[in-house]
Design goal:
Layout (H helix, E strand, L loop, with lengths): L4 H13 L6 H4 L6 H6 L1 E5 L14 H4 L6 H10 L21 H10 L4 E7 L25 H11 L3 E2 L1 E3 L4 H4 L40 H18 L3 E4 L9 H18 L4 E5 L9 E5 L11 E6 L16 H13 L2 E7 L9 H17 L13 E2 L22 E6 L2 E6 L7 E4 L17 E6 L7 E4 L4 E4 L8 E7 L1
Parallel strand pairs: 1-2, 1-9, 2-3, 2-4, 4-5, 5-6, 6-7, 7-8, 8-9
Antiparallel strand pairs: 10-11, 11-12, 12-17, 13-16, 14-17, 15-16
Length: 490
């Protein structure tokens, strides 16, 4: 069993010597890096042992032990009883024989993404990187490759940063249902075992739920995460929801102080993203899972969502979103002071589906032409205008928005104002009402002088005029994607 104490001592030493201490007061000095604010768009990757059954979702390892669930029934029918073929028995099948990090890097760079966040360890407890803490990792088993390390190297060659995602803390209960019947998950277990600790699943909304994660488990979580920090120097750490549990709070503060101090030693700036109120506001970046805000926020935030509506990992029945809709969301999110982390779920053999690839290349083609309205931009005085309202909150990405040519989103950058129509007008006519000639006594209105209007990706100059109704634009541009107007103002 791995001796955690030397690493725990090292963590305390780094915190003691660095500018950040493990208190919310000290961590409140954190500032979101400008590189992150500028990049706006990144790729998330859910790939692991759960990609082998490719059924249901990335929660297969939990659900296959819930009696009566579709995964439970599918597992028995396809692989046999759980006591004879458990989740661990998928690991030898996870050979990733077609895994090509260079091909992934080429595709993600072509998508226009500026950073990539692979899942380093999901709830199932299998590490996708080389580890001294557990032998249950992709370097020693399954693919027998340091997946995170190989990806980081190839992403860097394409000019992309690499982050890492840890869903380890949910492993406290994730395999617990396997103890409710005769399966391969049974006591006694100790730290270092693949299924350990497999506790009873709590009420996820109860932040004090029993059984409370033990000190041993939380120290293990902390050391695992710090190992990722030290070995791979990720630009970002992403955490799933259950780190908000009350028992985790002291360890979150230690983790953040350690990460920020290590980044200071390296001469770089890093990001932690979190859900709900796991971190004290202002000490990291809030994330909205599969959703977005209805209005612009004064703070920077992130949406993480997936190309597939039904699953984060690849399954044989994935419901893929069209890239045109994802682009509309990207523009809306950026106009409201946010950024998008878009998930891809590769197949078990290491290939990326044709559907995922088509979406990524579609997004990249649009950004190649219109990226100046996204990258390195800032918010305007208002995020936009139009009749369509966003349903605010998480898990709302499956709600069809039905944007119209009247739905306009604004950003500023490079001395220009960008107005993006989320849907192309059939006749090429637009009216941007926020840019109408205004009564100067109304300070909330725009009173600037418009000198010129250009349509990105269109060689033909538009015809435009301005009156009390709005900025009128007539263009020859026709597209199935958002249309960007670059407006020169004084």
């Amino acid at each position: 069993m791995y001796n955690m104490q030397p690493y725990l001592d090292k963590i305390d030493e780094v915190i003691a010597q660095g500018p950040f201490k493990d208190t919310w007061e000290s961590l409140s000095a954190y500032r979101v890096p400008q590189w992150y604010k500028n990049e706006k768009f990144g790729i998330f990757i859910h790939w692991g042992v759960y990609s082998v059954p490719a059924f249901g979702s990335e929660w297969y390892s939990r659900c296959m032990y819930i009696q009566g669930s579709p995964e439970y029934e599918h597992h028995i029918k396809t692989y046999g009883p759980q006591k004879e073929f458990g989740y661990k028995d998928f690991i030898p099948m996870f050979t990733a024989e077609k895994f090509d990090p260079e091909a992934w890097a080429e595709l993600f760079a072509a998508s226009g993404a500026k950073h990539v966040v692979p899942v380093a360890e999901h709830h199932d407890g299998f590490q996708m990187y080389r580890s001294e803490i557990s032998h249950w990792n992709a370097y020693e088993m399954g693919p027998e490759r340091d997946v995170l390390g190989e990806l980081k190297e190839k992403f860097a060659e394409k000019g992309m940063r690499t982050g890492a995602s840890s869903h380890r803390i949910e492993h406290w209960f994730f395999m617990g249902h396997g103890k409710e019947f005769d399966s391969d998950i049974k006591d006694p277990m100790e730290r270092g075992d693949f299924y350990w600790p497999a506790n009873r699943e709590p009420d996820h909304q109860d932040l004090f739920s029993e059984p409370v994660p033990t000190e041993e488990f939380l120290q293990d979580w902390l050391v695992r995460t710090c190992e990722i920090i030290d070995r791979y120097r990720p630009c970002m750490l992403y955490f799933d929801w259950w780190i908000q549990h009350s028992a985790a709070k002291p360890y979150l503060k230690k983790l953040a102080a350690y990460y920020y101090n290590r980044a200071a030693q390296w001469g770089t700036e890093v990001v932690i993203t979190y859900k709900h109120d796991a971190f004290r506001f202002g000490t990291a970046v809030p994330d909205v899972e599969r959703g977005q805000f209805a209005d612009m926020k004064p703070y920077f935030w992130q949406t993480d969502t997936a190309i597939a509506l039904n699953s984060w990992c690849y399954t044989e029945n994935n419901d893929f979103r069209p890239y045109e809709e994802i682009l509309q969301d990207l523009v809306d999110i950026v106009s409201k002071n946010g950024c998008l982390l878009l998930n891809v779920g590769p197949k078990a053999d290491g290939t990326i589906s044709a559907e995922d690839e088509a979406v990524l290349r579609g997004i990249g083609a649009w950004l190649e032409v219109n990226g100046e309205a996204i990258y390195n931009t800032d918010i305007w005085r208002q995020y936009g205008e139009g009749p369509t309202r966003i349903v605010e909150g998480q898990f709302a990405d499956g709600i069809k928005k039905n944007f119209t040519p009247e739905d306009i989103r604004f950003t500023v950058g490079g001395g220009y104002l960008y107005a993006t129509a989320l849907k192309c007008s059939e006749n090429g006519t637009y009216c941007i009402r926020s840019l109408a000639t205004q009564d100067a006594s109304k300070l909330a209105n725009f009173h600037g002088i418009i000198h010129d209007v250009a349509v990105l990706g269109c060689d033909e100059a538009p015809v435009w005029s301005r009156d009390a109704e709005g900025l009128h634009i007539q263009t020859a541009m026709r597209s199935n994607t958002p249309v960007v107007f670059r407006i020169t103002v004084d």
